[in-house]
Amino acid sequence: MAKGDKAVAERIRANELEVAAFVARLEKILGDTIDTVLMDIQAGTTGAVDAARILGGIRRVLIDKGFNEEIGRLDAIFGQELKAISDDLKQYSKGKQIFGDTDKTIVEQLITFSAEDVTKNFDSYVGDIRREIISGAITGEIPAAGAIKEKYTGRIRANLEAELNTSLSAFSRTIQASKAKELGLELFIYQGPDDKITRDFCHETLDRDPPIYTAEEIAALDNGQGLDAMIYGGGYNCRHQWTPISLVKAKELGYQDGD
Amino acid sequence: MAISGITFKKNFDLKRIADERAERTKRELGAALFDAKAEIVERTLQGRDVDSRGFKGYSERYGKAKLEKTGKATPNLTVTGNMLKNITVKVEQVGKDIVGRLFFSSTAEATKARYNQAIRKFFGLDTSQFNRLIERIRGAWNR
């Protein structure tokens, strides 16, 4: 590999690691908090009632340890995407944009929603951990910190990574759908791999020949995850996309009106 | 009385006509670029480069891992799918020019694409795609 290629490969790896590093930092904060709370309970310095109170404030402990700052880093991750789009919009500021300012608004909304989703998701896991520790404190069987961490942090990591990747992916799909609407394109072709890890929903959607759908048909699709199929495809971590196409192209591919 | 001449008077709104033509052309260019994107994505998923040749295979180790995970070892440049999803279309008027662009809006995905392009040339239009695009724009302009 040439020297330049190696440098590029390293930068790609750095980008991919960014989301993973964000999740790892959250994981560490949670792990440290669990250690602190459980040590207090096990040392007898905290009774069951106090434990419940402390655990009730687990979110406060997390905030003290920098949870909010970590969530704030989401802006930095998504901000790169936003900056790229903003720069691009500015580049031709003298020219009339065929695609309006909706791009930027949509991206900003996605940033807000994603931060909220991650917080909710994290809170839900903290709630589960809290219940388990309280239950242990009441029955006198305090779970080991290691066991709790092993049980939950892996799940949190996988879930948050999926959440972030899904949100990043939603950027592209949302912007694309918005542009298609402005151009008056009403047909979309479902594209992506069809292999052994492809979900049934995606496999069935790809199975139509050709896999071309109207916006109305897509709106009626149910991916079983309660997520908008146009924006999220088959759901979390979906590798597929809806590419807008013209009626001319659709007919070339064998699409018939009223399919 | 002798006829001195015939006057035909009709107010042509030339600016409106020019604007409509430009708008029609921009829309057609946008649609044509989205069609080109669909073709690039499809070709890449099939493991073919811009010249329709098969992509260079994965290394033995990566190919084996990919086969185990997905059941397929043909390179399709799709792990998360984010790079191909990020191919973006933009059409705008800059002065008198109508400019259409097919590009990666995310710096991360653009970097990934540049790296892939050096090994497996997936991003681009072949002569036939390019000629079809020109024909469509010409058609929209002259309509």
Short description:
The complex is a heterodimer of chains A (259) and B (143). Chain A is mainly alpha-helical and 259 residues long.
Percent range of helical residues of chain A: 55-70%
| Biggest interchain interface, per-side counts | A-B, 50 and 46 residues
Task: Briefly note the structural class of the backbone of chain B.
Answer: mainly alpha
Helix content of chain B: 40-55%
What is the count of DSSP helices of chain B, taking H or I runs of 4+ residues?
5
Low-confidence stretches of chain A: 88-99
The total of helices of chain A stands at 10
Globally, the shape of chain B reads elongated
Strand arrangement, major sheet of chain A: 3-2-4
| Arithmetic mean pLDDT of chain A | 72
Query: What is the total number of structural domains of chain A?
Result: 2
Major beta sheet of chain B, specifics? 2 strands, antiparallel
* Largest sheet: spatial strand order of chain B: 1-2
Would you kindly provide a written description of the structure presented here, covering whatever features stand out?
The complex is a heterodimer of chains A (259) and B (143). With 259 residues, chain A is mainly α. In chain A, 70% of the residues lie in helices and 6% in strands. In chain A, strands 3-2-4 form a three-stranded antiparallel β-sheet. In chain A, helix 1 (3-42) runs antiparallel to helix 4 (67-91), helix 4 runs antiparallel to helix 5 and helix 5 (102-139) packs antiparallel against helix 6. Chain A starts with a helix and ends in a 7-residue tail after the last helix. The model of chain A is unreliable at 88-99 (pLDDT under 50). Chain B is mostly helical and 143 residues long. Helix content of chain B is 53%, strand content 11%. Chain B contains five helices and two strands. In chain B, helix 1 (14-45) packs antiparallel against helix 5. The model of chain B has no long low-confidence stretch (mean pLDDT 89). Chains A and B meet through helix 1, helix 4, strand 1, helix 6 and strand 4 of A and helix 1, helix 3, strand 1 and helix 4 of B.
